[in-house]
User: What shape does this take?
Amino acid sequence: MKKVISIVLLLALSQFANASECPDLLKFAKRKLNSQEVVNMCEAYKGKTVLFVNTASKCGFTPQFEGLEALYEKHKEEGLVILGFPSNDFNQEFGDEKKTAELCELTYGVKFPMFESISVRGDDADPLYAMLAKKAGSEPKWNFYKYLMDKNGDVVDSYSAFTKPDNEDFVADIKAALAL
Assistant: This one.
């Protein structure tokens, strides 16, 4: 009888462990922008609705930082997190992380997490962005390309740089992902 109970307990625990696994898109550790602090993305963002955005400091879309921060402030208590990844893939990012951090914080008041500069497309794409592109079926076509992941780790959709943070359909998708 004890053997049967032990087997049942082991099966139940293994199912619980599988259910609580980290989504593939969060199985990364990333260094915060202009810092030595490394974030275990699974520990920090598992169970959250995540918006991944590749950013640039010297781009016509750079003012989207303001709208992204407003979106983050409005929905962070509901479980939204925005993760910014500066990229120089389109030759519009500073080579100095300190300058990038200053622009984000001082010019646009960005408080959502910003991470180290990475490549987001092509053969040199960071593994996170290669996975995002594969799951969404499209890689970033420009700066401020956005990927929305629901709290289960599924990519909801991707959005071009022309999709502003206050776009009604975009915000509706975020609200739907938060409601899951």
